[in-house]
Each structure stands twice: as C-alpha cells, then as structure tokens.
Specification:
Oligomer: single chain
Structural class: mainly beta
Radius of gyration: 20 Å
Helix content: under 10%
Largest sheet: 5 strands, antiparallel
Strand content: over 45%
C-alpha cells in the first residue's frame, strides 16, 4: 500500500507487528496469520516511532524517538510511566520482561511489566551497552563497546524462571504454587515471613494445625 517500514518484530506466538509510515502518517500494523494479511493500522497518536518490540500479541511496545516507551492496550497506546527516559533500544518477551539499554552506560536493564520493577544488569569493563536481545527473563545477548571495539556478551540468570503472575495460596495459606509451573514439576514456594523461598525438586510435608 506504499507504506515505508520503520521497524518490524515477531513475538513468541509468531505474529508480526510492523511500524510503517504512509501518506496518512505512521502507524502500527498487526499481521493476521489466518488470512495472511496485514490488518487495520493502529494509530500512534503523538508518538514519533523508532522501534516496535513484541513479546507476543498481548505484549507489544513502541519506542519513540525521544526515548519513551508505550504499550499497546485495547487498540491504543499507553505510556509506560515506570520506565525512565532516554531509552535507545528495547526487546520484549512473552513472559512479561522488557529488556532495554540507553546506549551510553555500561548497563542493560530488565523491566518486569507486571510488578512493575526494573533491575540494572551491569556489564563489567565495557564503555556502553548498545543493543540487547532476549527471549526470556533469564537470558540476553548484549552488543557492547569495549576498548573502542564492538563485543558480544551473553547473560544467563542464576534463576530458573520468572514468575510473572501472582502466586496462588493453597488451602493452608503458607505453601504457594505458581500457575506457570507445570504440575508435577517438583517446584513449589514457601512463605517464610520475610519472603518467598523456592524449593526445587523436593517433597514437602506440611503440618496443619
């Protein structure tokens, strides 16, 4: 239709999203695999787009040229106020995490959208993190500047998985399980008062009284 693509991304569910400009301005174009066609564009409002990042069809973000991030919600965009300004690149995951960088500091940043909560992931002995790619909470690839040259770093989390949804209390109110964990997988969580402890591949006996 004569549109010029600015950015394209595909989520975990294999649904592409494209940012493109045409005579009527820039918009987000979702793709429908069932009909193999691009759907009606979603207007961006006052956003001047730079990049789209899709974790899946329910987690679609747009980075604007000013370094702000907005999320697609109910066919319109809402600014993610918990994120700082000055972001230069983003990557979204289906588990609710949004990795990003500012292109200037030696850090990558991992934002948990459900909480919301942001963690800084420093990369030692580098000048800056230029790009970050990720497929889940616990892994990332980072393109960095180090000693005047580009280098690629990998990140592996010491945690096995990220529990985005709320924990579900069982009948006794102390042992918790997460709905993302496969039944019978041997993972459970215990509220010890000061926090929640993950117990892996174990059998627990609980005294009820």
């Amino acid at each position: 239709n004569g549109a010029t693509v600015i950015s394209l991304d595909v989520g975990e569910d294999d649904i592409p999203f494209a940012l493109a400009t045409s005579g009527s301005g820039a918009a987000l174009y979702p793709f429908d695999p069932a009909t193999m066609s691009w759907q009606q564009p979603v207007g961006l409002g006052a956003i001047t787009p730079k990049q789209v990042a899709a974790g899946d069809a329910t987690r679609v973000y747009v980075l604007d040229t000013g370094g702000g991030v907005s999320r697609l919600e109910n066919s319109s965009f809402v600014a993610v106020g918990a994120l700082p300004a000055g972001i230069t690149q983003i990557t979204a995951n289906h588990d609710g995490t949004l990795w990003h960088c500012d292109g200037a500091s030696p850090n990558a940043f991992r934002f948990i959208s459900e909480r919301p909560y942001q963690a800084t992931v420093p990369v030692p002995n580098v000048t800056s993190v230029q790009r970050v790619a990720s497929t889940a909470y616990g892994n990332a690839l980072m393109l960095v500047q180090q000693a005047g040259a580009s280098q690629l770093y990998t990140y592996d989390s010491p945690f096995l998985f990220k529990t985005s949804p709320s924990f579900v209390p069982l009948a006794n109110g102390r042992v918790l399980q997460n709905p993302q964990v496969t039944p019978g997988g041997g993972r459970c969580f215990v509220n010890v008062g000061s926090g929640i402890v993950a117990l892996l591949f174990c059998t627990i006996s609980v005294a009820l009284g």
